[in-house]
Amino acid sequence: MNSTNNAANNPVVTFLTSRRSVTAKTMAPGQVSRADLDAILTAGLRVPDHGALKPWKLVVLQGDIRKTLDEEVILAEFMRENPDAEDKFIEIETARLQ
Q1: Which of 15, 28, 29, 64 is 20 to 30 A from 21, comparing alpha carbons?
Q2: With 90 as the cut, is the pLDDT of residue 14 above it?
Q3: Which residues form the domain of 82?
């Protein structure tokens, strides 16, 4: 068996070639568990860094700061760019990080 066949049958390669990003609108609201967050951060820190830009700086936003960012940054910028926005879109931007 050659290396091409090995790669094609590798479940990691299959996952990486079939994955799709999701938009924020389709993400479920709520908290990420501590165990899931730890796994995500651990995996993120293992990403290859061919530009030698380490150390990584990761920021986790939890609690009231998410609401503050929604209202004071995200919504403010949205309203600046869309002053005549419909209420339904304003409501979405008010809770983008919730």
Answers
A1: 64
A2: no
A3: 3-94
